[in-house]
Amino acid sequence: MGLFWGLIIGALAGWIAGNLMKGQGFGLLGNIAVGLVGGFLGGVVFRLLGLAATGLIGSLIMSVLGAVLLIFIVGKVARR
């Protein structure tokens, strides 16, 4: 069941981040990938800042913030 919720949160986080950063999503698989990597990145950043995200909403917020950061970094690197 944890894998199922992880994929759902990843897809939702990737879609939200895609809409926030460039106005569109990345497709289902792209949203899941961006959301999952963003969740990992968000977890690292949250730990470095001494923050914790618990529950479904906390995981979603952390994943969205991480995915936004991921899209920002990839956008900056890709422009070079």
Automatic annotation (TrEMBL):
Protein location: Cell membrane
GO annotation, cellular component aspect: plasma membrane
Matching Pfam families: Transgly_assoc (PF04226)
UniProt entry keywords in alphabetical sequence: Cell membrane, Membrane, Transmembrane, Transmembrane helix
Major site of localization recorded for this protein: membrane
Family from the record: Belongs to the UPF0410 family.
The name this protein goes by in its record: GlsB/YeaQ/YmgE family stress response membrane protein
Organism: Zobellella endophytica
